[in-house]
Automatic annotation (TrEMBL), chain A:
InterPro entries: AAA+_ATPase, ABC_transporter-like_ATP-bd, ABC_transporter-like_CS, P-loop_NTPase. One of its GO terms (molecular function) is ATP binding. This is ABC transporter ATP-binding protein. PROSITE patterns: ABC_TRANSPORTER_1, ABC_TRANSPORTER_2. The keyword Mitochondrion does not apply. It comes from Brevibacterium aurantiacum.
Length: 321, 262
């Protein structure tokens, strides 16, 4: 199990990770999501002891990573694809790690075969494509046959076959009871592979949930209404306690988004008033839209644990119309 | 599999020796390592041949053979700085620390490797240059010195041993600067500062700089500085000053990593 407790990191005046607490349980694949610059890599680096937290602590099975008795047998890490010496061959790159971690030499061939790099083992890393470097990074993470895997954007650069291979590998590892912690900025990819999801934005926790719960809460919707008298419509709806926003993409200002009333309810309110309405529709929120909404204004959100219901995601409302 | 067998983990717990062996595999796997060592030996021998061949017979035969190793050392300085700085320039330090998260162990391993390879190369340089130099001298009917003389053996051996000083300083500075060129330039400054001081400073400062600089004790330990001369130091003091300087730079290397992010 990987845990962070109030993990915080400041770089000068900037707070890159802010009071982050979450748990990555054994036997599951946890996707670690957030937009670029959200603090995902910094969080993973703090778990691995590469960056020192300004506050809080990150633990692996209850211990800090540097204090583990056999780090490589406990945690297999894959960091950014550029972090290896280009003049080493793939075999040499794995050989020094195996030696330093006191692992059997046979593990080198095992992981090279497992990642499909057996035939290019003697090729220098600088001659590898991005996809091959990613595979080498995964091979490196698997070298110690670890109980936990921390992988920073492992899918990047893999071809479609490679992506399928990686997905089935991660699932197999999780089924063996290992902890698999994967970061990505691609929700679509995490949707297909992760059991749980942790979303951060601007260094703060936004969501910690199972993927199933996130799907459930993303099946929500909002109402779009277009009226030639938008100001009147806004006043009318707000009298009914509606949460109304103007659509900034419509320069005429006639398009309104109503978050807590269904299309049917809006229709009934407007019908009673006699206000003209040119368009009224119930819009389904996709998981991706929910994710974009979650991370668009991260500072407005307070972190929650195991409760993905948040103000920014359209409230689950009865479907109207 | 949810947890590994504790007994298995304890028996497989990596030690400093394992980290050092890992570093040896890593560093020797790069072709540039063997090329640099070979160049170091090549440059030293080449310079020794040049100096000896074109010497008019006025120079001390032993001194002629000990200049080449000094120049060859500077290629080892470049190697030492790169052994450390390449970790940062390639980003591989992240993987190195993921495998060996105890930073002190990693630093110690790299410095031990630098010391060992420099010592070994230095002794090869020193004895090879001595052999080549004396062979040329004797072959051209000029005075030469044999290894039967204890002071000659001492001078050649100490020259070889002292080859590790500047590479170790460069490696330590590379941990501080995380930059190979910066570490090499600083090492050059440290090595040549006494010579500059000797020309520009007051006699007192010049004496202090020459005698107590990191490379200063070598002349006393090789026996080339005689009692009463500016560079002379008793053996015990010479060893103490050398160890003192190395301790300062190595401590700086360790201290620089204690609180820094990678």
């Amino acid at each position: 199990m990987i845990q962070t407790h109030h993990l915080t990191k400041h770089y000068g005046d900037a707070t890159v990770v802010d009071d982050l607490s979450f748990t990555v349980p054994n036997g599951s694949i946890t996707g670690f999501l957030g937009p670029n610059g959200a603090g995902k890599s910094t969080t993973m680096r703090m778990i691995l002891g590469l960056d020192r937290p300004s506050d809080g602590v990150a633990l692996v099975d209850g211990e800090k990573f540097p204090d583990l008795r056999a780090p490589s047998r406990t945690v297999g890490a894959m960091l950014e694809s550029g972090s290896r010496q280009p003049h080493l061959t793939a075999r040499a790159y794995l050989a020094w790690q195996a030696r330093a971690a006191r692992l059997s030499k046979s593990r080198i061939d095992d992981v090279l075969d497992q990642t499909g790099l057996g035939e290019v083992a003697r090729k220098q890393v600088r001659d590898f494509s991005l996809g091959m470097r990613q595979r080498l990074g995964i091979a490196s993470a698997l070298l110690g046959d670890p109980t936990h895997l921390i992988l920073d954007e492992p899918i990047n650069g893999l071809d479609p076959q490679g992506v399928l291979w990686a997905r089935s590998l991660f699932k197999e590892l999780a089924n063996e009871g290992r902890t698999v912690f994967i970061s990505s900025h691609l929700l679509s990819e995490m949707e297909t592979v992760a059991d749980r999801i942790i979303v951060i934005g601007q260094g703060r926790l936004i969501v910690e949930s199972t993927m199933a719960d996130l799907h459930q809460h993303a099946r929500s919707s909002h109402t779009v209404a277009v009226s030639p008298e938008p100001d009147e419509l806004v006043r009318l709806l707000e009298r009914s306690d509606a949460s109304v926003e103007r659509d900034n993409t419509d320069k005429s200002g006639r398009t309104l988004t109503i978050r807590n009333l269904s299309a049917a309810q809006v229709g009934e309110i407007v019908a009673d008033s006699g206000l003209p309405l040119h368009h009224l529709a119930q819009v389904q929120t996709t998981l991706e839209q929910a994710f974009m909404d979650l991370t668009a204004g991260a500072l407005e959100y307070e972190g929650t644990e195991n409760d993905p219901t948040l103000a920014s995601v359209a409230a689950t409302a009865r479907m109207g119309g | 599999m949810t947890t590994a067998d504790p007994i298995q983990i304890e028996s497989a717990r990596p030690r400093l020796r394992d980290c050092l062996l890992g570093e040896i595999v890593k560093i020797l796997s790069a072709k540039s390592t063997s090329v640099t060592i070979a160049l170091s030996i090549g440059v030293a021998v080449f310079v020794t041949v040049l100096i000896t061949v074109f010497n008019d017979g006025s120079a001390n035969p032993l001194s002629l053979s000990l200049i080449g190793p000094f120049l060859g050392t500077w290629l080892l300085v470049v190697l030492a700085a790169n052994v450390v700085a390449t970790e940062y320039s390639t980003g591989m330090i992240q993987q190195s620390l993921a495998v060996t998260p105890r930073r002190g162990r990693l630093i110690a391993s790299k410095l031990l490797f630098v010391a060992a390879i420099s010592l070994l190369s230095g002794l090869v340089l020193s004895f090879l240059c001595y052999a080549v130099g004396q062979l040329i001298l004797s072959g051209t009917d000029r005075p030469s010195i044999g290894l039967g003389d204890v002071s000659t053996v001492r001078a050649v051996t100490v020259t070889g041993v002292f080859t590790l000083i500047y590479p170790l300083i460069a490696a330590s500075l590379a941990f501080v600067t995380r930059h190979a060129t910066g570490a090499v330039l600083l090492t050059l400054l440290i090595a040549f500062f006494p010579m500059v001081m000797a020309e520009l400073g007051s006699s007192t400062w010049a004496e202090i700089a020459v005698r107590f600089a990191p490379g200063g004790p070598m002349e006393s330990l090789t026996g080339q500085a005689q009692p009463g001369t500016v560079g002379y130091m008793e053996t015990g003091s010479a060893v103490g000053v050398t160890i003192g300087w190395l301790s300062i730079f190595v401590a700086a290397a360790f201290a620089s990593q204690l609180r820094r992010d990678e």
